[in-house]
Amino acid sequence: MLRNFDVCFAGHPCRLSEGIVKVNVRSMWGAQQWQENGRRVIMRGVMGKRFIFWVGSEPRMCLTDKNMIKEFFIKHNNHSGKSWLQQQGTKHFIGKGVLMANGMEWYHQRQIVTPAFMADKLKNYAEYMVQCTNEMLDYLSEALRSSGSTEVEIGQYMVQVTAEIICRTAFDSSYQKGKQIFETLTQLQHLCSQANQHLYFPGSRFFPNKYNREIKSKKKEMENLLKEIIASRKESIATSHRTDLLSLLLSETNKTKSKKKIDVQMVMDECKTFFFAGHETSSTLLTWTIMLLASNTEWQTRVRAELNMVINESMRLYPPAFPFPRMVFDDIRLGDLDIPKGLSIWVPILAINRSEDIWGKDANEFKPERFADAQTSTPGKLFMPFGMGPRTCIGQAFALREAKIVLALLLSRFSFTISENYRHAPVNVLTLKPKYGVPVHLKPLSS
Ligand code: HEM
């Protein structure tokens, strides 16, 4: 039985779309502020810190209590997971990979991919990260020289470098080879996001409408490309000693008796998941961090010694990814609540990260020093940019190492300021992106 929170039947509590925060209910907790084209949009909640809202046919409960969130993510992982509705929303571009799997399927997949992110592998990956970043910076310098302009949209370079890094480290293939897959995956992601904004009713996914037709054809295109890479790698798998993610996955397809045996469709879904999760979030983190540094130039000199603080503050203000809502599959007791199965738990990360009650009056300001001492600067605060509990981000160490390498190399070669053409418009397309990119003026440090 549910008690002690307000109920709202009006729809999404907070929806970031088209760069403008649209609040179509009164139920947002606390206050959430956003800046759109210089205009500050302020939402104030009137429904309290716990409430229920509906997403289509799925009831979701907003939870903001730190202890209950921790208890839920850590203790109740076995009784919760991604709902059918969420799996439907992402199935065309990431399928049933580890991000969307539940129960034993998730457990087996997580076991298979974990070795690819162990400390010894990360050490090897660092070399690729440096190499890919230097190549990107050379390319960037050349682009500036040939255009004669100082302005670039930096986001596209961050997408390119993180895509190249994940291709080389996880799939041992070059960016050029994986480029087509990335483009198709990005198109699919946008198509799925647009399709999800339309009314869902039972059976609607089978309708041959514009979105469904395009999604089907793009999905086929991408899977054919992946099949080509898999086929060429399968031939060499027995003789090579590769330990990248794709090799780990392919070796599991050969295990006839293993409980963990996976088929080619699963390998493809896992590849799509890592293509998506492995660069989308990281490029977003880098782009927002550069936007913040370009707007707060004094931090460019300090950041060399204090990268951790800057990266944390960037993820607080612009969390690249939020934990997906988790559906409760069995009745559970959570704090003072009895949660029935079928209810999803949703944590409003943006509201928590910008709450004045938690972070103080300057919650909306860029102040990396609030993370000066990671042990003591966040007591009593909930900060979970990589999720929490057994399903925490598998690529966390990878992403942080990559972010530090890319930022450190960029800062060693350029200083930068935000362009007057920058339009602040965060938009949620599964990750939190700057809708119009981040144009900056770059100045080579040697000149
Ligand atoms: C700044 C960069 C990143 C951020 C902020 C981020 C954030 C997250 C978050 C919040 C989750 C939890 C999702 C949930 O609970 O529903 C997650 C899961 C995951 N992330 Fe990341 N991530 C980042 C980079 C990466 C990278 C580089 C990889 C792979 C190379 C990766 C792979 C994954 C996978 C596979 C999961 C699913 C884990 C599971 O369910 O067991 N992520 N990430």
From TrEMBL:
Cofactor entry: heme
| Pfam families linked | p450
Keywords linked to the UniProt accession: Heme, Iron, Membrane, Metal-binding, Monooxygenase, Oxidoreductase, Transmembrane, Transmembrane helix
UniProt entry tagged with the keyword Iron? yes
Please provide, alphabetically and separated by semicolons, the GO molecular function terms listed in this UniProt record.
Answer: heme binding; iron ion binding; monooxygenase activity; oxidoreductase activity, acting on paired donors, with incorporation or reduction of molecular oxygen
Q: Among its keywords, does the record have Nuclease?
A: no
Q: GO CC annotations?
A: membrane
InterPro entries membership: Cyt_P450, Cyt_P450_CS, Cyt_P450_E_grp-I, Cyt_P450_sf, Cytochrome_P450_Monooxygen
The parts of the chain that form a coiled coil are none
Residues annotated for heme binding in this entry:
393
Which compartments is it annotated to reside in? Membrane
| Single Gene Ontology BP annotation | secondary metabolite biosynthetic process
Q: Which family would the database say this protein is a member of? A: Belongs to the cytochrome P450 family.
Record's protein name? Cytochrome P450
